[in-house]
Each structure stands twice: as structure tokens, then as C-alpha cells.
Design a protein that fits this description.
By secondary structure, this protein is of the alpha/beta class. 42% of the residues lie in helices and 12% in strands. It has a six-stranded parallel beta sheet, with helices on both faces. One of its GO terms (molecular function) is hydrolase activity.
């Protein structure tokens, strides 16, 4: 398990890590295809196939996470559509106690998300999870995603953390792989990012399905 005495900084992903990924999965796999079908006069099946192909083409790149990109590509009011289902935005049940314990232990807590700033703002508005964090960073500020080594070099320079004494928590294996390649000393995967889906079996990294199992933190 984690040796908290060797960790000074905790970098945290947002969607699927602090927040339930159900909102995002529902939005991108259900809401967007339905809106696309209606706008383009397509069957839902055809619209979903088109959308999934478009997602696949930019997967892992900053465009995949960019609401402006999708609004332009699909000619859809993306933020308006998000607000229609914003009631689904929720903090994971195990997060408040975990973040509170991290704060009390003196760790530096930084959000590092690929989410677009508008999406980040909406989620803070709905949940106020930012009250636990020292800093919020959207990779859109850098123009590259967490999958990119360029991002990690820039973030390290700007935030000044010791990567050997940093814990990074994320639900994406590809993002964790990028953090590992960069040299982040401690990595933790989230096995259950979407509350409506079964836990995943993760063999590559130490994983957790309830942060409270990591307590106490010293």
C-alpha cells in the first residue's frame, strides 16, 4: 500500500477520480449522440456510430476533452446540453473524508484535469469540491493533455513539486502510463470510476475502489 510519509504532493484527476464518471459517460455516449441524430436527421444508431468514430480519431488528445472543439465539429450547444443533465454531477461518496484527511495531514492537494475550463466550472458550481484543494489546473491552459510528456514537464516546472514524492491518482490507465514514464513516484488507479458500472480489474497499478481504505493518513 501507499507509504504516506514518502508523499508530499497529491495530484488528483477529476472525472472518475473525485467525481462519479456516470455523468460524463451518460453525456458523451447518450446525450450527444441523441442531439447529433436530431440535428443531422440521422437514426440514433447511425449518429452513435458517427460520434464514436469521431471520438476515436482524437482519443487522448486535447481535442477529445475540448468542448469548443465538439461544439464546432457537431454544431451543437455543448454547455447547454451539459446543463440539462447537470443533476447527474456528483462527488464520489468516499471523496470528502479522503480529501479532508489529506488536508489535515499537510499534503499539498492539486487538481490536474483534462476537463475543459467550462466543464470544470460547472462541476465546481454543482459540488464545491474545490474547497478541499490548494490549486486547480486544467490542461487546456497548456494546450496538451495528460497523455503528453510535454504537459508533465510544463506542470512540474510551474508547480514545483518533487515528482519522486508525488502521488498521482487517475482512472485512466493511459494517463497513469504517461505519469509513470515521466517519473511520478507514486501512482494509484481508480477501479470504479462510474458508479453504474462494475469495478474493473486493474493489474498494472495499485488500485482502489474506496479511498477510505487508505486511511489513516500520516
Amino acid at each position: 500500500m501507499l507509504n504516506w510519509s514518502n508523499i508530499d504532493t497529491v495530484l488528483l484527476d477529476m472525472d472518475g477520480t473525485l467525481l462519479d464518471l456516470h455523468f460524463d459517460n451518460h453525456f458523451f455516449l447518450d446525450v450527444v449522440p441523441k442531439a447529433h441524430a436530431k440535428r443531422q436527421g440521422l437514426t440514433l444508431e447511425a449518429a452513435r456510430a458517427d460520434i464514436l468514430a469521431r471520438y476515436e480519431a482524437v482519443m487522448g488528445q486535447i481535442e477529445w476533452y475540448c468542448l469548443d472543439y465538439w461544439q464546432e465539429q457537431l454544431q451543437l450547444p455543448i454547455m447547454e446540453l451539459k446543463r440539462e443533465v447537470q443533476h447527474l454531477i456528483s462527488v464520489r461518496d468516499d471523496v470528502p473524508e479522503f480529501l479532508d484527511a489529506l488536508r489535515k495531514s499537510g499534503k499539498q492537494l492539486i487538481l490536474l484535469t483534462n476537463a475543459h475550463p467550462n466543464s470544470l466550472s460547472l462541476k465546481i458550481e454543482r459540488t464545491q469540491f474545490d474547497q478541499y484543494l490548494d490549486k486547480l489546473v486544467s490542461t487546456h491552459e497548456y494546450g496538451v493533455s495528460k497523455e503528453s510528456q510535454e504537459l508533465w514537464h510544463q506542470v512540474e516546472q510551474d508547480l514545483g513539486f518533487d515528482k519522486s514524492r508525488t502521488l498521482f491518482v487517475d482512472d485512466s490507465i493511459s494517463v497513469l502510463n504517461a505519469a509513470k514514464k515521466f517519473g511520478i513516484g507514486h501512482l494509484l488507479a481508480v477501479a470504479n470510476p462510474d458508479s453504474q458500472q462494475p469495478d474493473r480489474e486493474i493489474k498494472e497499478y495499485l488500485s482502489v475502489s474506496d479511498y477510505r481504505t487508505l486511511l489513516p493518513i500520516y
